[in-house]
Amino acid sequence: MLKGFAITPPVIGRISIGRVVEKNGKRLPEKDDQFTITTQIQQRGEWVLHPLDSELRKLQPGKLRAIPVRFLFADPDLNLRADYSCFDRENGRPVCVGNGITCRRAGDSGIEELPCPSPDGCAFGQGGACKPYGRLNVLIGDEDEMGSFIFRTTSFNSIRALAARLHYFAAVSGNLLACLPLELKLRGKSTTQSYRSAIYYVDLGVRTGSTLEAAITSARELDERRKAAGFDQTALDVAARRGFGNGAFEESAEDVSAVAEEFYPGESGDSGQGDGHAKAEVPPASSLRGKLEQRAALLGGNAA
After folding, report:
1. Total domain count, the chain
2. What angle do CA 80, 191, 128 make, to 5 degrees?
3. 2 belongs to a structural domain
4. How does pLDDT run across 53-95, given as a tens digit for each residue?
5. pTM summary value
6. Domain residue limits at 180
């Protein structure tokens, strides 16, 4: 195995809740209130829709706000990798990745391991350069049982909800997360920091029309069939863990341009995969409302 870059799950498509559009000569992220499933191919600056996108839209009325999924790994932290990430705004390359305790930072002398005080307390990541960044790999359909779709996000709401659900489902199923029939769901909420406008984030639950008990029963049956066929889930998790640990940063050189475009769109400071919401009018800091909301945001920190 080549050393120096992470061996990550094979990706055959993308899941997004937004897209990049051209406005006044600039390519900027535009948020949405539904999922979009695309291939990894771009044509004329737009990601080509995956056939599963239209198939799933036929099965549910209105907007695509639920996607039936399974997971590759039994370990929740292998399916969702989340950390504080600082990317070079010019080329999108990761320069610092941390977990709130320690970080790996690229410098002139190579990769250094340093303390990680989180974005709010880090001078290196000031100005919004460092953000929580999550990558979720899921299986959709049965065409490729090792080919995953990736959902990238800088939304704290999405990362927190997905991390909690993954760990909970793994616990209640007796470590059968990889066998559970689940569903990605798009949920809405309003917060002080969104100025009471609706924001959208990604959550995880049992499939529509099913129950947790039924999902666990189905998972046990699938686990028994896999074991009878010789499927070794433990070995798969070990191989994945070794692959992720093979490099300092997960993103490859081919991914960095898409990361920069979606999460670091020039001067907009906005994120196409953060909490999706219509742009709210921000009151001037000098106004009474502005001062009160600034104080509320400071007290709330990153709780929203």
Report:
1. 1
2. 60
3. no
4. 999 999 988 899 999 999 999 999 999 999 998 877 676 677 8
5. 0.81
6. 11-300
